[in-house]
Amino acid sequence: xxxxxxGRSVPRREAHAKLTGRAPYVHNLVLPGMLYGKIARxxxxxxxxxxxxxxxxxxxxxxxxxxxxxxxxxxxxxxxxGPAFHDQPILAIDKVRHAGEPLALVLASDPHVAEAAARAIxxxxxxxxxxxxxxxxxxxxxxxxxxxxxxxxFPDLKHLAGKRDTNxxxxxxxxxxxxxxxxxxxxxxxxxxxxTQQVLHVPLEPFVSVAEPGDERLxxxxxxxxxxxxRIEIARLLGWPENRVRVQVPFxxxxxxxxxxxxxxxxxxAAALIVRRPVKVALTMEEQFYTLTKxxxxxxxxxxxxxEGRIIARECEVWWNGGAYADIGxxxxxxxxxxxxxxxxxxxxxxxxxxxxxxxxPAGALRGFGIPQLVWAYESHAxxxxxxxxxxxxxxxxxNILREGRPQATGTLMRDAALEPxxxxxxxxxxxxxxxxxxxxxxxRGRGMAIGFKASISPTTSVAxxxxxxxxxxxxxxxxVDMGQGxxxxxxxxxxxxxxxxxxxxTVVHPDTDVTPYDMATLGxxxxxxxxxxxxxxxxxxxxxxxxxxxxxxxxxxxxxxxELFRRRYGMQAGxxxxxxxxxxxxxxxxxxxGQSSNVTPFWMVGAAGVExxxxxxxxxxxxxxxxxxxxxxxxxxxxxVDTQLSGAAIMQLGFTLYEQMQFRDGQVTNPSxxxxxIPGMLDLPAVIENEAVAADExxxxxxxxxxxxxxxxxxxxxxxxxxxxxxxxxxxxxxxxAEAVYRALRQQxxxxxxxx
Length: 757
What we know:
Blueprint: H1 15-19, E1 35-41, E2 47-53, H2 55-58, E3 63-67, H3 69-75, E4 80-81, E5 88-89, E6 95-96, E7 102-108, H4 111-119, E8 122-127, E9 168-176, H5 179-184, E10 188-196, E11 208-213, E12 218-222, H6 227-238, E13 245-248, H7 265-275, E14 279-282, H8 285-288, E15 293-294, E16 296-305, E17 311-321, H9 329-336, E18 348-356, E19 363-364, H10 371-389, H11 393-400, H12 419-430, E20 439-440, E21 443-455, E22 462-469, E23 474-477, H13 487-499, E24 506-509, H14 527-553, H15 562-570, E25 576-583, E26 604-616, E27 622-632, H16 639-658, E28 664-665, E29 668-669, E30 688-693, H17 716-728, H18 739-749
Parallel strand pairs: 1-14, 12-13, 15-19, 17-18, 23-24, 27-30
Antiparallel strand pairs: 1-7, 2-6, 2-8, 3-7, 4-5, 9-18, 10-16, 11-12, 11-14, 16-17, 20-21, 21-26, 22-23, 22-25, 26-27, 28-29
Helix pairs in contact: 10-17, 13-14, 14-15
């Protein structure tokens, strides 16, 4: 038998190709006769389109064609798409709903010509009232969509079909116990409101898609996290069977949730079918700011505490700013919304979670899928309550943490969720019970902690194929997209462990819907668990067929090399053994009225963060000097990749915590560039970053494993806010925690006038 592959830090399978510049990306793809498309975008946040004048653009030398919605309607009679609602047009029809919305597409053989021509397009608008704030959108007279159009993908949205004159795309409600009675009997009641800002994914490879028309077929080369969904949705738009649409995805230069569902694929598909030539649309970094963002949110938490410091009741209201188009926001509202009370054992819970349309750029999935916004609120709230009661923040969490076998707010029992071990290990690594040096002079030091958890998206499906060749090598076919998270390597390790060979002998075929089988999408840390199980089953199927072949030939499988097995069967080096596996976890949908479910998720992700900070009381500048990530990810398939996933997620959330914020004026993004939108650089990172996975086992996961790509995001923001208060005694309830925000809070604390700040 070959050495164990699980738990081995196999070098990333794609590392050499990336280091040598040979790794394929759609941005580098050039096809014969290809046209480049550049988008003319709306300058208004909400307006009726009176007319679009493309004459100047068409007159630019080198322009091949200028397309508007009128052209698209000739090939796609209903050109609206979206995973939750069919609410987003390929090009704006009749009105625009956010600044930056695509209005027209200019095609040329030279992208610079197309870009210059796009700027020459003139639009006549009739301005409409706009709404930008998620709470105001609840009852605003400015209505973004006159009629709701659920896509039908999700059964629990069908009741919204035809609903008119509302900005509420989904309202999710959970009721457990009797919160009113519990609050009435509580020894203490605390209520706080928190806000998070709109931020961007910033993959360093912006959105890009190429459509290649063929003989009654269409091939899409696209930087997508969901090739199977793209094929299904493009086929639906065109009224074609799926086998007429082919979607190929090479490597992605980052995704983080941005490149899910339909982004540019419908636009390039329509354009290519109209002009009968390949069409490529590659966005600039600036254009990403108009395409998809992370939900800004307002979160209100009210807690009732008994005389011993235990939470007996919690009431949560969450308003999610979904922007102009729903994308996957309704899933965030529900699937993350039901964790709003936090990882605590609370008998009486009330949750109201709302997905709102506004006239800002659309919001969708971003690493954490709404969980970092929720953890920001409930873990900031936890420290505020603990301090008010005079209880150590760690002790307060210990008193209330959910333990194995106890029901979460939905009623689902907690299984294989190492909340208590993660919390205790974090405390040990932080040396929480030991004296802490508080700084001197104008620089004060503090420390903070936070813990969060996340449910996996359900129900979803993954399918895999393992193809063993006559020389004993192996191909693994699956539609999981490697976007830098190391999924190719992890899947190869799973298959190799079953087949008893080295992971290096397995080639992972990149997603190609003509070749690789269905996978719902690469999102929400689902791949290790869902696709990992499918790969394991496919490898087991192939292994069992090889064992049966050996038995048929009267050979001992443990001593017969695979090439010999095939030679005996076929008389030469020939043939294949194919294994197939699929995985769909069990799931019980939440009750529409109560939000209760006996089985709301196949697995839980658990992550905690501890930080040490320095705060300059003269400037408000915050420096994180130490960052500790502790996680439950079951068994680590590849410890080295796990370590980078935890660090990468935490650093990304560090940017959202201290620096990043999209700025708006009348719905217009005013900082759509990396010159003005600051992401963390090397000098902004903590000097010490420590990662640890606690000893745990996910019994339903492949070899005890589950996802880890988002876990490092959960606790970073509240841990830093808690550390700032620990250092200088000021509490911030709105992200980001900029130096200016801290400085203003310090001046207010000292009773100094803010107008001079």
